Amino acid sequence: MIESKIVHLIFAVVALTHLMYTSGQTEKIEPAQVTTVELTDTVLVADTMRFGVNLGDDNYWDNILTKKRGKGNQEGGWQLNFEGTTYRQCHFGPTQDEYGALSYFVEPDWWIDLMREHGYYTILSGPAKGTTGKIAGISIIEKEPWGNLLYFEFDKPVAPNPDINGGLLVEAFRLEDGQLIPPDPYYPGFWTSENNEIAIGDVPPGSFGHAALNLKGSTDPDSTDEYEEKRAYIHLSTHYQKHGETNGTWRIHFWAKAQNGTPTLVLAADTATWQSQIVEGLTSEWKKFEETMVISGVPEPDEQNEPRLFFKLEATDGDVLIDDIELWMEGDENPTAFRDDTIEALREFNPGVLRYNQMGGSTIDNTIAPRLQSHSYSSRGPQVATYGPYENHEQHSYSLHEMYELCEYLGCEPWYCLPGTLHPWTLHPETLHQDELANFIEYLGAPADIGYGKKRAEMGHPQPWTEVFEHIHIEFGNEAWNAGGPYQCGGYNGPDYWKDLIEVGKSSPYYTPNILFHTGGQEGWPGLNETILQNAPNADRFAVAPYIIQSLDHCDIGLLDTDEKLFRWVFAMPIRRSLDPRGSMYQNYQLARAANIELSVYEINHHITEGDAPPEPRNRIVTSIGGGINVINTMLLMLKEHGIRTQCFYQLNQHHFNAAAGEVRLWGAALNMRNGHERYRPTFLASAIANKVIGGDLVETVHSGFEPTFDATGYFEEDEECPAPPNPPPPPETVSDIPAIWSYGFVDSDNRGLILINLDVSESHLVEVRFEGTVAYEEATSWLLSADAITDNNEFEVGEPQVTVTEEMLADFASGAQVILPPHSMRVIKWGISRSLGDVSGDGNVTAFDASRVLSHVVGLITLSGEALRVADVSGNGAVTAYDAVLILQFSVGLIDSFPADKTQHISAYRAATRQLDLTLQDEKTRQIFIPVQIDEANGVLAYDLSLSYNPDILEIQEVRQIHPDDLLEYQADAGELKITLVRAEPLQGRSTEMIIVGVLHSRRRQPVSLTLNRVELNEGTIPVKVRVLEEQSNYRR
Question: What's the predicted TM-score (pTM) here?
C-alpha cells in the first residue's frame, strides 16, 4: 500500500454555484464528489526548470533535424570530407600488475591488431594513474571465473594497482587513413560504386585533413565493353518527402579536380525521374563548384509510396577527386544549423534543456569542430568489421558548437555529452590531444582572444558561453555503466577518473559555478550508484535514466487482460518506484541526499523492449494517451518527491525501435515536424503543455474533499522471474489506495501554474481550485490533453490524431473555480496574480528598490512589461516616469499612504512657479569636463528627467554623480544620448546643485563640444522649467 502524500480533511458539501469549466464534458458529477486542490506558498523545490528533451541523431529515414545533415559518410549524408578515424576505448578488469592490465572485454582481431601496431595506453586509476606509453603487446589470457580476458602489456614497469576494476584508456589515431562508407550488403553498389577509392595527400587548398574521394570512372567493373562508357558515383540522400518538403531550390557545393583521363562530372537528382546537369569547368586543378538545382517533381506520399529525393555525383570516362561536399535546400530563415521545422517543433515543446549523447572514441577538438573540419571516431570494437578507410565509423550529427547556438536561439540550457574517453592530464605528444578538458573549459569561458576562446570566436561566437547560459551541463560519455553493445568501453566510472576530470575543469581560471558536472549510474542498480557517488564526490549532479517498465512478458499479459488492469499497473509502476522504500528511485534519492548531491535525469521514457510479449500490448502503452500522461506524471512526481529539476525526455524523433519481439514504437515524441504536417505523440503534447507553467518554485498543493483512489495488481520488480509454461506464474503484488488525482503547483513571480492529472481509467472528476490573491485581468488559460479512450494515439495509421490539446480562456477565473478532469487526462491552468501598485519587483512589498526599478526603466537600462509596467504607473497618468519613482519612494518611507492611481485620477504633487535649471560647462586643465546641474529653487521638486545629445566621437560620458546621498539616480549614455533620472522622497529648499555630469574629451586638440538638451521634466512635467547653459573659463573652445 502506498502512503498518500495528500492531506486528508473533513470537507463540507459544496454547492454547485461555483464557476465550472467543462471543456465540452456533459456528464453530471455529484456535489459531494468535488476534490479541492489548494495552491499554497510552501516551497517544495525552488528554481525549477522546464522539462528537456534529447535531440537525437540526424537520419534520412526520420525527421531531419539540420539544414546540412552531418552523418557524412553514412547513408550518403549532406556534408562529406572523407577524413580518418580516432579509436579510443576505456577498459577495466580484475587486475593491473607491474607489466600490464587485464580487461573484461575481448575485442575482435582487427582491433587487437590496430592497438598492437598503433596504440597508446593511459592508466586512469590507482598508484600509477597518469602513466602513459606505447602498448607493447596484447594477448588473450584465460582467467577464472571470467574466462578469456585481454591483457595489455605496458612498455615500462609501473606501480601495480591493488584494487580491482582499475581503468585504462587505450587509443590509436588513424587520421590519415581517410573514411568512405563501405558497400551496403543489402543494396550493393547503391551508396557508392564499388570501384571508388580514398585518395590520400591530395586535398583542396586550405582544406582540413588529408583525404578525398576518388570517383574511379576509369575502372568501372560493370563495364564489359571497351567502348562502353565507364562511370563511378556517390549517392547523396536527402530525406523523405513525408518528413520535409524537398521540392525547391537546392545548393550543392563541393571541390573537384580531374585526376585521370578526360572525365565528365554530372550532378543528377532522382525525383520521379532523373534530372541532371553537367558540372562545367572541371580541370586538373582543385576548384570549388557551387551548383544550383531546382527540384519540382517529388510527389507527396501515398499508401504505396514514400518518395524521397536523392542526388548523385557521377564521373564518366576518367577519375575525379571530390572533397568537402555540402548540400542544402534554400528557405530556412533561422540563423542556426537546424531546419525551421526543427526550430518550430522545439518551440512547441519549449524545453528547458537540450541533451545530445555520445559514447567514447571522439576528442574535444572533434566534438567542437564543424562537420567539414572533423573526422570519424570509434569506440565500438565488436560492432564494426575492421579499421581503416572502408568502414562505417561514427561521426557527429552536429557539433557541440552548433547545438550551443541552437540552445542560445531557443533560450534553453545545453547538455551535450563530451566523449567518454577523455584525457585528464597532459600526455604523450603522439596522442595529439593534450589537456582536453582544460581546453574545453577555456572554450566555454575564455575571452575571444585567448586559446580555445579564440576558437569559439572564430566559429562566430566571441561572447563566452558561460555568460550566455544559466547553466551548462557536462557529462562524460553516455552510460559508462553499460557494458552492452555500442556502450561497451565508451567510458569509465571507476575510481579517480571522473573525479580527476572534474578537478581539472574546476581548477581552470575560466571555470564558473554555472558549469555543472554530471556523473551517472544505472537507475535500477542503487548499489553500483553508491560506489560511483563515492568515486566522484566533486560532481554537481548525479544522473540516472528512470525508464518505465523494462520488460513485458506472458506473465504480465495473462494477468493484465483488460485495458483498465493494464494501465492501472502502468500508472502504479513508477509511483511505487518513487514512494515505496523498495523502489529504486526512492533508494537513489536517499543515496544522493547522503552524498549531498542533486539527482538529474539524462533520459526517461517507457522502455518495454525486453520480455516475450508481442509488440501490440507494448505499443498500446507507449503510443497512447495513457502512456503520455504516465511519463509526464512520473517526471513531475520525481520533481516533487526527489527534487530532480533537470530532466530530459528521450527523445525528440524516432518512429520505432527494432526490439527482439518486433517493432516497438519508441523512442521519438515527434512523428512529423514538417511544416503543415505536424504530428506529435501524446508524450510530446504532455511535455509541451506542462512546460507552459513549469518555472519558478514548485509549491505544495493540498487536497481535501473527495479523494478517488485505485488499486493496481501486477509484477513490480524488474527482476521478477516469469517461468516458461506450463510452470505457474509467481504470485502478483497489489498496490492499494493510489490517488487518482495528482496536482503540481508553480509560483513564478506574478505567474501561477497548476498541473492536474487524472489517472482514473474510466471516471471524470470535478476539481475546485483554491489559491491566495486576485487574478490579473480575471482570466486564466487552460490546456486540456484528452482522448475518448485510454489507448487512443496519434500514430499515422489511425488517420486524424485521436489525442488532442484543447486550449481555452477561462473568463472570470478566481479562487474557487471548478474544472472537470475527464478520465485519463491532463489539464494545465496558468494565471497571473495582480500586484499592488508600486510593487514593481513583485516581491509583495513596496520599497526603494521598486523606485530604482522604475528609474532603470525610464533611462532604458531595463524594460518593464506586463504587470510590472502596470503597477509602476502609480501616478495614474498612463506613463511611467521618474515622478512615479518619487511616489513609490515616498510611500516606502511613509510620507504618503496611497497613490494617485488608487483614486483613479492623476494628482500632481506641486503646481509651482517656473524654475530655472542651469547647466554650467567647466573643465580643469585636462581633457576632463564637469557639468554641474543646478536649480534656482528646489522646493517641491522631487523628480528630474533629462535627455541630452552629444557627439560621442568627441566626448565620452564617464559618470553622473548625485550630490545628495538620499537621492536615487540612474543614467544611461548610449550612442550619443545621455538619459538621466533623479528622484527624492522629500524636497530640498532654495538653490541646489543636483548632479554633476563627468565627461572626457577623446583628444587634446581644441574642438567644439556641443551639448543639446532634448528634454527636461520636473515632477512628470507638472513644474514649468527654463534652462540656461552657462560657460566658465576653459582651455577648450566650445
Answer: 0.85
